[in-house]
Amino acid sequence: MSVTGDALDAAPVARPSRPARGLERYRPNRTTWPLWACTAGMPFAYVLGLHGLVWSLPGLVLGARILSDRNTRFPKTTIPLVFFLGWILLSATVLTSGTGYLLFTYRWTLFAGALATLVWLVNLPEETVSSDQIVDWLAALWIILVGFGFLGIAFPNFAHLSPFQMALGGLGKKGFVDEISNLRLAETQGFLGFALPRPAAPFGGTNGWGAAMGILTPFFLRSWVVEATGRRRRWGIAIGLAAAYPILISVNRGLWVSLAVGLVYFACRKALRGKLTPVLVLFGVLLTVGVLLVATPAGTLVQERLNSSGTDRSNASRSDLYHLAFQGAKESPLIGNGTPQRAIDSPDLPPVGTHGLIWYLMYVHGFVGLGLFLGWLGVEVLHTGRVRRSKTWWTHLSLVIALVEVPFYGLLPQVVLFGVAAGLAHREDSA
Prior knowledge:
Layout: H1 33-37, H2 42-48, H3 57-68, H4 79-87, H5 98-123, H6 131-154, E1 159-160, H7 163-168, H8 175-181, E2 183-184, E3 186-189, E4 196-199, H9 206-226, H10 230-249, H11 253-272, H12 277-295, H13 298-307, H14 309-331, H15 357-385, H16 390-405, H17 415-429
Antiparallel strand pairs: 1-2, 3-4
């Protein structure tokens, strides 16, 4: 693909005005409902207890659609991901229990959802559903996560069986089913020496919440600030400022790092083009964060998070898990171990293969699976980085943030959002 310069700096061109954003833009139809269910429709899924299962819908429903259409076009960049989905099926051959097969199938559908959403968006006519509408849904999910963040802070002890769990009876209270369908608002932890409620809903833990917040932030900025005007932009700025509070209160270092890297990357890329406005934005954000750290309890929490012995223990545990994941992958380098497992010699640690998508892929699917997936993600980051249209910039920034998160976030089910971002980039870049 030829490079015509950074679209952020391109001369403005005439383009059709963006359709008004009424409530109808946030409603699904028979074509879009699988993606809507895990974005703008997330509150409905959460109330029913389906907030974990809906992430499988893109892989299952959209995957079936694209495979049934002989005219479906697969972008060349998806070749590593296609091989990845086939290769990791070999990992299932080492499983020995029905539960293991169930978990493997669920996780496989999430990776399949990344491919299915990408290909579906590339082949879906703009007249059927616009890219702007999909971006609005992603931005809506970001706002929903902010709302859940405040609810988690206000009602940290809320936990209840969901209607889905009650319908399943005893099965609904067990292990994996409970993890993805229970109605919890926060994950309360004591690594700072006192009980700290950290936003979690609609995911199983605060790391899932933080990972999604990072990936979705560029879409919120595009939908509610950059391409918005008037009242909508004012609301967008207000929501963005309010979101800083749960982001800081979550003491989620991974989210802080990913957003900081994304912001600095944005400012540096623009500065190289002689555009200083983003640099001023960077300083403005730093000033806002500084005020919040001084004027709210967030400052104390952040300082304790950075200085506490609990942080040292957390880092040590992660280091042990990373070492065990690498050693386990060396024992089965081609197809991996099929599922995360607890170390026999370190039963107090979380299962090996968690706490980072890199380590999950390495331990569960071997070095081949790891290479194929990272190869695909790297290609998409490079492809979207050769920006020809300003719209594509925000999908590129989302993938950059996702790449930053890969070492320390599990990103299941957030991996589906990787495919949405890449699909939007392909779609808009070829428009």
